[in-house]
Amino acid sequence: MHNKGKFIAFEGIDGSGKSTQIRILAERLKIQGDTCYTTMEPTDSPIGSLIHQIMTGRIKTDNKVIAALFVADRLDHLLNDVDGIVSKVNEGITVLTDRYYFSSYAYQSVDMPMDWIIQANEQSSQILRPSVNIFIDTDPDIAMERIARNRFHRELFEKKARLIEVREKYLEAFEKQKDVERVMVVDGNRSEREIAEDIWGKLMLLPESAAYQ
Fold first, then answer.
1. Arithmetic mean of pLDDT, 190-197
2. 170, 109 contact by CB (below 8 A)
3. What is the pLDDT at residue 147?
4. pLDDT of residue 3
5. Beta-bridge partner residues of 183
């Protein structure tokens, strides 16, 4: 039994297939005997529910307010005493999250200075930095096709022009944070199975790969 679980954050533009890859990886880790917990941001907490209402256009507010709500939701995601990520990792559980603070850096910096957003999320990064951030790098055209196939409505952030900007902001954020963050970039323009095999193979090459064997 490992003293601490791993914390793996999946990142990517909408339609990149993060939730599918999280499910596949969690199943694979469980077969190996790992205890896994999958989660996502925004959460389904009261703060997360408010964010969902803003993202679907039911509530209007300023971009700084949205950024601050994400910060609050993330801190609660880490620290709440019912199913907080920190307590799970400390119990030796491997936590896989669909989005973490790089999503804030990428999506919110389209409208605001990225350095401000990174600073606003500093508490979260100090509390728990991912063992690895897995970025599923997907062409916005392919992402839009997947969104159109799989969803009945599109949230604010799912317009093609915005996805192009968000992808560029992700790459900018990874460059800014390259000295403090471990980022694994995976080609997301392939089949689910090919992407899953690539993620698994790259996880095996990480310094802590013993944790997955």
1. 97
2. no
3. 84
4. 65
5. 133
Compute the average pLDDT of residues 8-14. Answer: 97
CB 185 within 8 A of CB 167: no
Residue found by looking up tokens 């491997």 in the block? 94
- State the DSSP string of the chain: --SS--EEEEE-STTS-HHHHHHHHHHHHHHTT--EEEEESS-SSHHHHHHHHHHTTSS---HHHHHHHHHHHHHHHHH-TTT-HHHHHHTT-EEEEE--HHHHHHHHTTTS-HHHHHHHTHHHHHH---SEEEEEE--HHHHHHHHHHH-SS--TT-SHHHHHHHHHHHHHHHHHTTTT--EEEEE-SS-HHHHHHHHHHHHHHSTTGGGG-
- One-letter amino acid at 95 equals V
pLDDT digits (tens, 9 = 90+) for 132-172: 999 999 999 999 988 888 766 666 566 889 999 999 999 99
pTM: 0.93
For the segment 55-91, what is each residue's pLDDT rounded down to a tens digit?
988 999 999 999 999 999 999 999 999 899 999 999 9
Q: How many residues does the chain have?
A: 213
Concatenating the DSSP letter of every residue in 112-125 gives S-HHHHHHHTHHHH
C-beta separation of 47 from 71 below 8 A: no
CA 22 centroid distance within chain: 10
According to the model, what pLDDT value does residue 149 have?
82
State how beta strands 183-187 and 132-137 pair.
parallel
